[in-house]
Amino acid sequence: MQSVLQTYFGYFKFRSHQKEVIEKILDGKDCLVVMATGSGKSLFYQIPPLVTRKTAIVISPLLSLMQDQVMSLKQRGINAEYLGSTQTDKTVHSHAESGTYDVLYMTPEKACSLTSRFWANLLNMGICLFAVDEAHCISEWGHDFRKEYKQLNMLRGILSDVPFVALTATATEKVRNDIICSLNMNETFTAVGSFDRQNLFYGVKSFNRSLSFVDDLVQEVSKYINSAGSMIIYCTTVKDTEQIYESLQNAGIKAGIYHGQMGSSNREKIHRSFIKDELQILVATIAFGMGIDKPNVRCIIHYGCPRSLESYYQESGRCGRDGLPSVCWLYYSRSDFTKADYYCAEAHSESQRKAIMESLRAAEKYCFLATCRRKFLLQYFGETSNGDCGNCDNCTHAKKQRDLSRECFLLLSCIRSCGGRWGINMPIDILRGSRAKKIVGNNFDNLPLHGLGKDYSSTWWKALAAQLIANGYLKENLVDVYRTVSISPVGLQFLSSANTFHHRPLVLALTSEMADEEEHGNQKNKLGDHQNPAVLACEGLSEAESKLFLMLLDIRLDIAKRYGTAPYAICGDETINRLAKMRPCNRARLANIDGINQHFVTSYGDEFITSIDKLSQELNLQTDYEGTAQTAKNIKVGASIEKRATPAKLEAWRLWQHGGLSFQKIAEIPRNTGPIKEQTVISYVLDAAREGCELNWSRFCKETGLTLEIVSQIRCAITSVGSRCKLKPIKEELPESVTYDNIKTCLTMDELGLLAEEIIGCNSVDEVPNMIMESPSHVPFKSVIRNGAAYSSPMITTTIASESAPTSPDHCETHLKQSRSDDALDLESSAIKLPKICENTEHWTGDLVATEIAVLEWVRDHDGVSLLDIVEHFKGSEEESVLDLLSHLEGEFVIFKKNDLYKVM
Ligand SMILES: Nc1ncnc2c1ncn2[C@@H]1O[C@H](COP(=O)(O)OP(=O)(O)OP(=O)(O)O)[C@@H](O)[C@H]1O
């Protein structure tokens, strides 16, 4: 599982619930997963087929979503396809039936229309799971009920032994139960994740639909248009989309429009352009809703409040799916909440009608909040939160509060005077002195309160009413689709202790609507503060790194165009952010970056490495940066610092890679701890490669006897074992002749994103791309030659010492201690500063060769040795060379000579 995550997805760690649920699925259990948008639910059905090598069936409501997912999976080297009306490749059906695909997508209609023979054939080949994505569509209690989903239970009988996996981002308790019942799921394992999307900022503003507001909006968003991330403006009507789209076009912004009245091919075209970053802004109705799989949407604006809080959560959740900071602004007008009738017309039952009303009501409440918006959202989905979030408009903008006792008294009294039979409009109109027919007809114009609230607009009064409801002074009652308001016991208590002139203080927070009106009069069209998407996406980067980030985005765009795919399918913005921070300069280091998968390394790795190297030079940035970046915190290089290659591993690697020695010869070199096995040397060298050291893989495969045939046998064995973690079961599946070394080599190459076919296919070792080591010539370096053989020894201790020019013996001791401690060794400095060497080892005699490490260790262990002793011990080296080496170590204050005896400092 772990290696599948790394190889195909380039991620090093599972997110919460992922491992646990995947294990349940692999155990054959039915699972229900309720986790936030962008939390990584797709992996639940994408990993099991790669582990079991059986097909995963995925039911998805939209063809466009399937196409996007298929495209992304193909970019990861995963065999995926979809069955549906827009599929033009006629062979997909028969390939699907014969189990060719790892992941096979289809709509519920398609799934129910496939013949039982199709299912029987595919079952024969192996189905590892049946996933129902957006599973809330199955429930009438859900906000997006689709009757085709209801029929999916007929497949339960056919696929009785296949685990069913239902996935959704929005499901209340009722909806969850409905999903389990509808799909006839058994002993279901349920995983409910947090709904909290911490990287999203939530803001709400009231507005009037008007041309001047649209102009302001266009002007505001045009400031932030660039290559870093895109934006969606959701509208509630087609008319609104057209108006905004036109204004954006007039302002020269690359915008697209998407709504249900457009033809499907047009919609498809726009969708493609948007996900390929050819459009900066998409103006859409909710027809462009579920199924947008674009991770780098930085800002979502709602021009009008959606019909339910679930829809809002889901639509705004399309933002920042890559985890980078992103913003969601919702603009509402009062008229948005008067559409209950219209929405309820779609209801199939009384319960559904009630559900629609409740959801709209929740959306309205969300808009009128004066408290933390995230807290409200989380509570709505049954999750408790710890305090205010600090990342919504109500938390970040200090709320104005004041004593509103007079206004509250007027409103509550007026409601009481109306007899509690009316909605909120009637008492407000009375307070504002209206002489409408309804008011005069009911004699309300004779009430003493008539006209006492003229100073405020009806919007202001409505906002106050919402505050009184939220604070328990007013009760809202639902009668059919109409709402009436009445006074709660708390409200009555307040009224009983007050009269028109004296009331006890009642301090309430002003909602943004109330505050706006008081500050700007009736000019309420002020926009919320939008944040620059480019700045958001560059979080954690310096100025130069941000430039590199933007340049790398362009390179990714260019590659995506060439390959006819979406930039995000190549890799996510968060991965580009890490590349800009870490600036890897070889394949092994590139593969170490979270989000870089094997396919990326082999397909685009070299192009990125070359560009990073060139651009870093231009921007004066050091490559192979190792600092801990805030946004790059998952990078494996950082995580592996503790388990870096030990000196023994480095020494083995150097002797093999640069000394040209065979594994056997390295194993035979006398050591204080005695000789080591050849297999140990091989493991050491592989470990060093995993830690980022360059390796001549072609030579490595040759010397370990790894052929393409063996590689293919090993791959089959891994598939049949279903795991890459344990070597023994894999070995047991293989012929005797295949060694553990072969298996380990294969796994390491996979881990590093190297294709055996490329490496073993090379005729000459020199043809292996990117495997040649650059050796800075300024590094102190000694070589000891005997019998015409040359063997070079890099100086771990002196290399470190030379970095920081030791000035005192104390300092040297510190460095020496470092060299003795496996954990403290600075792999990077030693790995980078490798000397040039001569690789002629033909005549090596097997005598012990003097290297700095070997000499140092020996001198340390013998505490005071003469030159003669040293030369005698290291017979593999000339006396002159040993002397040279000793004088260098002396010069570096690593050893000293006293009374002709050498000692370690
Ligand atoms: N373990 C992980 N480590 C890092 N990134 C991950 C991990 N799992 C998933 N992701 C990334 O998180 C992003 C969102 O994942 P995914 O599309 O699976 O979310 P989702 O829960 O299906 O969202 P939605 O409900 O919106 O469809 C993707 O870019 C995905 O590659």
Q: What's the alpha carbon Rg, rounded to whole Å?
A: 35 Å
* Percentage beta strand: 5-15%
Using the alpha-carbon principal axes, give the shape.
elongated
Major sheet details: 7 strands, parallel
The protein's oligomeric status is single chain
Mean pLDDT: 78
Distance between the termini: 49 Å
Helix content: 40-55%
Q: Strand sequence of the main sheet, in spatial order?
A: 3-4-2-5-6-1-7
Structural class: alpha/beta
Name every ligand kind in the structure. Answer: adenosine-5'-triphosphate
List how many beta strands DSSP finds.
Answer: 21
* Count of alpha/pi helices: 45
Low-pLDDT stretches are 627-644, 763-845
InterPro entries: DEAD/DEAH_box_helicase_dom, DNA_helicase_ATP-dep_RecQ, Helicase_ATP-bd, Helicase_C-like, Helicase_HTH, HRDC-like_sf, HRDC_dom, HRDC_dom_sf
Catalytic activity: Couples ATP hydrolysis with the unwinding of duplex DNA by translocating in the 3'-5' direction; ATP + H2O = ADP + phosphate + H(+)
Protein name: ATP-dependent DNA helicase
GO biological process, one term: DNA replication
What labels would you give this structure?
single chain; 905 residues; 7-stranded parallel sheet; 6-stranded parallel sheet; binds adenosine-5'-triphosphate
Q: Your description of this structure?
A:
This protein is of the alpha/beta class and 905 residues long. Helices cover 46% and strands 12% of the residues. The chain is built from 45 helices and 21 strands. The strands form six sheets. A seven-stranded parallel β-sheet has the order 3-4-2-5-6-1-7, with helices on both faces. A hairpin with a 2-residue loop joins strand 15 (474-479) and strand 16 (482-487). The radius of gyration is 35 Å and the shape is elongated. Residues 627-644 and 763-845 have low confidence and may be disordered. Residues 22-189 form the Helicase ATP-binding domain. It catalyses: Couples ATP hydrolysis with the unwinding of duplex DNA by translocating in the 3'-5' direction; ATP + H2O = ADP + phosphate + H(+). Residues 216-364 form the Helicase C-terminal domain.
